[in-house]
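Mods, move this if it's the wrong board.
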Amino acid sequence: MKKTIIPNPLAISLKVVFTAALLMVLSFSLFAKEPPTGMARLSQEIARDVQYPDFLKAEGEKHDQLVKVTVAFNSEGVISVENVDSGNSQLNEYVKEKLNGRKLEVESDLIGKPLTFSIKFNLI
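Not the wrong board. C-alpha cells:
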C-alpha cells in the first residue's frame, strides 16, 4: 500500500511568507545606498554649506545658478580654491570666500588632487 502525503497548507504558506521576507531583506541590502565616500562625500559636504547668496536675490535673479568649482586640499585638509566658474564674477568671489581656508576631513589619497564639482543654487 502506497502512502499519499498531503502537504499541510499552513506549512506551505509559512514557507512562502518566510521566503518572500528573506528575498525582500536581501534585495534591500543589495540596493541600499552606501554613504558617499571620497570625492563624492567631500563635494556634497562643501556644496551643502554654501547657501544661495542674498546679493543674487537683491539683484532680482529669477533662476537657479550653477557654479563649477575646482578645489584642492593640503595635508591638513584645508581647502584651496583653484577655479570658480559661474558667469558671475560676484558669485565667483562669494564661493571663493566661503570655501578658501575651510578645513575638512580628507582621505590621504585626495590630498593635493584637484576636485571639480558643481554647486547648484536653487532659488527658493
